[in-house]
Amino acid sequence: MYWKHLKEEWSNMGNEIVDRTERLQVLKEIVKKFPSVNYEVFKYVIGHLNRVSHQSRTNFMTADNLSICFWPTLMRPDFENKDTLSTTKLNQSVIESFIQQCQYFFYNGEIVETSNPVATPPPAQMSNAGHMVEPLVPLQLPPPLQPQLIQHQLQTDPLV
């Protein structure tokens, strides 16, 4: 995404700010600096990960688990740099905060208590025309085809 341009500001935040509320406010200010396209894509991805974490009782993908999987993709670290290894947990915790605090960062919601591993879903969104957009629904796939239903009947006499 756009993290590499803000990495210095972001790295300083991890070492200096201890207060959780202040840290979230600084993160919110950093994200506001993203170009609008990057901001909207990041908002969409984090909103989706928030919805996935909301189903963690079923899929076991808590915000912590999701952040472990997705922080390298979202933050694009340089793993050849030894300093990256020392900040791995910090980077992962930032993505976890975005997932858990999705409403705070993107929908002007309140900071939620994170003792509960299940995140809150984002509110219904407005489309460009001002109409309510339906929340994403699970994809319903048909059952897999059975091999015997796919195979064509062979003719008994190949010359006919």
From TrEMBL:
GO cellular component: cytosol
GO biological process, any: regulation of cell size
Listed SMART domains: RhoGAP
Pfam families (alphabetical): RhoGAP
SUPFAM superfamilies xref list: GTPase activation domain, GAP (SSF48350)
Example GO molecular function: GTPase activator activity
Domain Rho-GAP: 1-106
Protein name stated in the entry: Rho GTPase-activating protein 5
